[in-house]
Amino acid sequence: MRVGVVTFPGTLDDQDAARALRLAGAEAVPLWHADHDLKGVDAVFLPGGFSYGDYLRCGAISRFAPLMTELIPAAQAGLPVLGTCNGFQILCEAHLLPGALVRNAGLHYVCRDQRIRVDNASTAWTTDFAEGQEITLPVKHGEGRYVADAETLAELEATGRVVFRYAGSNPNGSLNDIAGITNEAGNVVGLMPHPEHAVEELTGAPGVDGRGFFSSIVRKLVNA
Amino acid sequence: MSLDTVKRAAQTPDERMPFAELGMKQDEYDRVVAILGRRPTGSELAIYSVMWSEHCSYKSSKVHLRQFGTKAPKSEALLVGMGENAGVVDIGDGWAATFKIESHNHPSYVEPHQGAATGVGGIVRDIMSMGARPVAVMDSLRFGGLDQGDTRRVLPGVVEGISHYGNCLGLPNIGGEVVFDPCYIGNPLVNALCVGLLRKDQIKLATAPGPGNKVILFGARTGADGIGGASVLASATFEDESQAKRPAVQVGDPFMEKLLIECCLELYQADVVVGIQDLGAAGVSCATTELAAKGTGGMTVDLNLVPLRDPTLRPEEILMSESQERMMAVVTPGDIDAFLAICAKWDVPATVIGEVTDTGRLVMTWDGEVIVDIPPGTAADEGPVYERPFHEPLGQHDLNLDTPDSLERPSDLRTTLLQLIASANLSSREWVTSQYDRYVRGNTVLAQPADAGLLRVSEVMPGAEETTRGIALATDGNGRYAKLDPYAGAQLALSEAYRNVAVTGATPLAVTNCLNFGSPEDPEVMWQFAEAVRGLADACKTLGVPVTGGNVSFYNQTGSAAINPTPVVGVLGVIDDVAKRVRSGFPAAGLRVVLLGATYDEFGGSEWAHVAHDHLGGLPPRVNLEAERDLATVLTEASKQGLLEGSHDLSDGGLGIALAEACLAHGVGATVSLPGDDAFVDLFSESTARALVCLKPEHFEALTDLCARLDVPCYGLGETGGDSLVVEGVLEATVAELRMSHEATLPGVFG
């Protein structure tokens, strides 16, 4: 299983993403923003950071990167893609996922261990979770408040495309407590929390609840 | 404005030069004239004025700082000592760590956000220039009283600046301090620390050897930022017109700095760098004079080639600009193409602006005319050195006589505990630290509110050798102790940082320091400084931990009111197997709670005296370096043997606060009884060389044996478990109410 990890200028969590994939038994393949080349990977992880300095708007410049012109049609054709934090913002800017992520309601950057409820355990990245399961993952962002128009929200809710919701207190004021969503096909998932920071007992957030993301995709690719 | 060339300077010897406006004294100016044998040009004056400023030359502190060298303990770990951009320490398995703390106090008062942000940026570049990958930051912050209006302007700005810059760089923020005291209201302290890791055979130095090698300026373009900042802002006392100095504060771009980090690491990997220096205070002036002075001795620079953000800048301004995110490298002609290609990959502008020579002169041209022609060492290393007069402050004796012994002591210790744990300096720092990313890069083992930050060393660089090692870092300082006795105060800061590193299980190895004081022209302040340096140098010798570098910040004073003398000490330690680290606080129920170290009736400078009586007098707790060393040996040895489940250092607020914080760390209560016969002293005295540990009951005997061997007092206090902290016969408080008191304070002020 070869999973690409994209590095844009300003990407920060690429090392963590690659480590989490390796620990789950996948090969992490570095993908460079300026290449028109997905290197034949079986899935792609868009990690967090401040790509292009978050200038203009988070993710707004990255969506036009040469690599994204390859990734967007591939994702539309079914390639599994996971975007966390800045990666989620890029997926929204690229219109692979609906809605947008705006400044936190509290106006501050928030780094904390957050309880999250899994509401959809049938996407490419969540089959190793159970629906309704609560997990703990770190959140760390200044612009993670999910917003969308009423029609989009209603559709996401009606079709089960809200994958994760904040449990306990909502760290950023997201509508409907939304922490992560998926596309209609269930192959593209974006979320603000960071599963790649919760895969080892020694480091990162308490617990290893992030492992489920990577075991899910590895299982899917093995069975494909 | 006509160009002031060397030729013109020789022809117009009597032209009046604005040296006083640039912060230079008459005798200093006369020395420049004597060195050059003529009056300096405007550009030369710019170079000398910034290089000879207090900030760059350490002219008032040098004679004292030499003790860090002369008294330095023998250390096999020290690879690079003072005088380089940062010290480098051998941490084993072929790895080295480089770390340094630096102040950005004055800019952070004028413009809190940018001042603090560029403080982080500057120290990170120091670490990069040693050839290392920066792996974490910490910051030691001091503000005016929590109830003072300007604190509500300065603190949120400083925190946001550190948060924005550090988070964008992808460096975990793993600890530090936040302290409130009215003495800092006009002079907040922002001390930023960065640590980096490198292979020990790949250290880079700031040097420009090899005539014919090229000088490359790379990173951000040069603008009008901070012109005069080094000499005007960092060295002058604030008066009422400080608002007018706003444009002199530098503005940072963390995105460019992140690109610079990755770009530099790729340059090092490709081995295309002969020497490298970051551009900090004094910008191009500092980088060219220092590189040339430490290299073959000469350099030519064509200033017209410096890429500008503001095309109207004059050569004098280019030389003084403190634009951020710039580096200077010396590269062999054959490696230029490879160097520029790597910069292009990372979208980092890079320009060849000069060449190394063996003439012994630094020569700069503008429009083809020579505007600078100086021996670089005279600017970089041969600045003025002052033996400033000093004497004990007039009121010092009375201050020491005003002991806390006469203060009324409380009978209701539960109320005292709840009051202290909610006080400005002991309450939860989460409002601040939750704005910092502590997880990025995935190697953070411990971060705030743990006593020290702890990082895993492996997986730092792709392809690098694996190791089980970890590094621990802590910073501490106590201006109240240092006010009462600066010699002891500096030693107490070292003791606490040393202890904080040891409670994680790591062995303390080396020291960095940031010495924050008032005006060196005030003999009473100078006495505080001299005493603090003497104390720190003596203590480093006793504990066997050398000072590897640091920074002095003078002029932290408004009018005649100086801040409390505030030496901040950072200690770096190493743990052989990071998986054996000791967790912070009480991680589970059913563990024995043990107090290590002896408690005396010591309340001078204590948080209790401060909070309950607003009192500062007497003497600080007694320094006992031998006891600190023995305690550290017990802690590291016990961690190696796997005896400990959790630990916490005892410091401000004493055992009572340590117990409460240990309960709060994992939401686990404890039931304890006190060892002494005075519950108040047992709970709130700030005696040094003490720590709290918890362990499985079956390990208790092994620990007491270890303590007996090293003569470290050891008291079994009780057991963890339950929802409350119970001090038998004295007080009981639920963990929930402790948490409510602890966590409400900062949000109550800052929202």
From TrEMBL, chain A:
It is found in: Cytoplasm. GO terms for biological process: 'de novo' IMP biosynthetic process. Keywords: ATP-binding, Cytoplasm, Glutamine amidotransferase, Hydrolase, Ligase, Nucleotide-binding, Purine biosynthesis. This is Phosphoribosylformylglycinamidine synthase subunit PurQ. The active site is at 85 (nucleophile), 194, 196. It comes from Herbidospora solisilvae. Its EC number is 6.3.5.3, 3.5.1.2. One of its GO terms (cellular component) is cytoplasm. One of its GO terms (molecular function) is glutaminase activity. PANTHER family: PHOSPHORIBOSYLFORMYLGLYCINAMIDINE SYNTHASE SUBUNIT PURQ (PTHR47552). Part of the phosphoribosylformylglycinamidine synthase complex involved in the purines biosynthetic pathway. Catalyzes the ATP-dependent conversion of formylglycinamide ribonucleotide (FGAR) and glutamine to yield formylglycinamidine ribonucleotide (FGAM) and glutamate. The FGAM synthase complex is composed of three subunits. PurQ produces an ammonia molecule by converting glutamine to glutamate. PurL transfers the ammonia molecule to FGAR to form FGAM in an ATP-dependent manner. Pathway: Purine metabolism; IMP biosynthesis via de novo pathway; 5-amino-1-(5-phospho-D-ribosyl)imidazole from N(2)-formyl-N(1)-(5-phospho-D-ribosyl)glycinamide: step 1/2. Signal peptide: none annotated. Transmembrane segments: none annotated. It catalyses: L-glutamine + H2O = L-glutamate + NH4(+); N(2)-formyl-N(1)-(5-phospho-beta-D-ribosyl)glycinamide + L-glutamine + ATP + H2O = 2-formamido-N(1)-(5-O-phospho-beta-D-ribosyl)acetamidine + L-glutamate + ADP + phosphate + H(+). Gene3D superfamilies: 3.40.50.880. Part of the FGAM synthase complex composed of 1 PurL, 1 PurQ and 2 PurS subunits. PROSITE patterns: GATASE_TYPE_1.
